Amino acid sequence: MxxxxxxxxxLLAGAALAACLPSAxxxxxxxxxxxxxxxxxxxxxLDWSTAGWIVFSTPAAPYTPHSGTGxxxxxxxxxxxxxxxxxxxxxxxxxxxxxxxxxxxxxxxxLLNGQLVHSSVTLDPSATPSFLASGYAGLVDTVxxxxxxxxxxxxxxxxxxxxxxxxxxxxxLLGGLLVVGSIARRRKQHx
Length: 191
Fold this sequence. Notes:
Blueprint: H1 2-20, E1 26-29, E2 37-38, E3 54-56, E4 71-73, E5 84-100, E6 106-112, E7 115-119, E8 130-133, E9 140-147, E10 153-162, H2 167-190
Antiparallel strand pairs: 1-10, 2-3, 3-4, 5-8, 5-9, 5-10, 6-7, 6-9
Helix pairs in contact: 1-2
């Protein structure tokens, strides 16, 4: 009976440890940690290479940051295809804050494996930063920022969460805990 109780304790400990693992790692890019100029192509672990995104921190109404002083924009009158942001792996994208000139109406197109999976609602920016939610809970690997007037808005606090670990990850963790528990039990019996 004692060995089954020990096995049950090991299983419960493994389940408790698995429950403590984060289901997703939330990330908010606020652009405050980089100098004014061209945004690094791999900033925050994302691929920003298609647009030549520009970072600036100088106060300039109506291009108000949501937090800190840093924010990004695209080139003036760029096209939507140049505003693409790519994730290294499938990710849950929450949204971002925008401010700028009225009329630079914004939205997100969300893609997975090159296929459009969702388009967000639109946001007409103003000097007061407003959050544009993606409106999509699924996984994406690409975000396209669409606008009627690129370069007339700024983006801040770009929010996303890395994908939840695969079930196989939890199975491997539980299997490893069972092996460790089994070894500990054998050592205890031989002592």
